[in-house]
Amino acid sequence: MKQYDLVLLPGDGIGPEIISAAMGVMHAAASRYGFSLSAEEKAIGGCALDQFSVPLPEETLERCKAADAVFMGAVGGPKWDAVPGPLRPEKGLLGIRKGLGLYANLRPAIIFPALKSASPLKESIIGDGLDILIVRELTGGIYFGDRGRSQTEAGIPVAYDTERYSASEIDRITRVAFDAARTRGDKKAVTVVDKANVLESSRLWRECTEHIAREYPDISCNYQYVDNAAMQLVKNPGQFDVILTSNMFGDILSDEAAEITGSIGMLPSASLGGGTLGLYEPAHGSAPDIAGKDIANPLATILSGAMLLRYSLKEYAAADAIEAAVTAVLDAGCRTADLAGDQTAAVGTREMGRLVEEALR
Description:
Strand content: 15-25%
CATH topology of the largest domain: Isopropylmalate Dehydrogenase
Radius of gyration: 20 Å
Distance between the termini: 19 Å
CATH architecture of the largest domain: 3-Layer(aba) Sandwich
């Protein structure tokens, strides 16, 4: 029997609850498909800051480097809002992405048929459904550029953050997006989202993507400014197949896309680099206001687990089975509080995880 080594980073807020629910599903999938999972928990984010005085302990990073895959909950919360920038919990997340060389963030935004009514968009706009893959560059751009503070001669505070990209960084993420477009449906299209009418970094993005696109004659390539893309996501989301964009733009647009699907609690993500090691996490935050109440939606985390099985462990049948189980549970009318509305009784975090396990078995 094959055995895989996972590192779990539950993190803060609802992180431990959703990771626990998702791991129940992961073990059920492993049992059904003839492999096993060993899992060791490590600290990251606010809990690491409280325990080790840093948001990413070196021990955590080194242990993750030795694993087959990393499965994470969420980090941060108001408790650490007053912490200086370099020590904020989110620095742990940025640090582990950089430390593991994970430059490509894949965020699928899918409207499950049973959740059409949960979307804020009219059904006439959604049409037969929605299936978008956002490919976000993850280790460059403004989040990793030079930053600092100074003041004018008059003593007025000044702050700056630098958007910086190299051609090699753009080339490698562009190939990820075009390769992904080849494996999807009939559209086979990449939309590059930038701000090339203003930003020099975006003009370099266009030069690089136009060059790479020539290697993929079967994939259509088009460009949209980020403000127009944000509008088009709510006006005509069906036009998109794969969206390729920078770190900050991808961060914003993927959250918008998540809400279109009905809840940010439904959006999984995979962070990948040059090998099979990846970091998998839901796209939502730590939601400390509902932590410990057994009401958080674990489905984004469960679906992130399916991505872990597919991309890092190559257990394709198990990944497909988890996604089918989530669909079956939603088709049966089961909803957590974020999706239930006024007409449907909500199930809790643990119960939703159990229902998916049951459907999987």
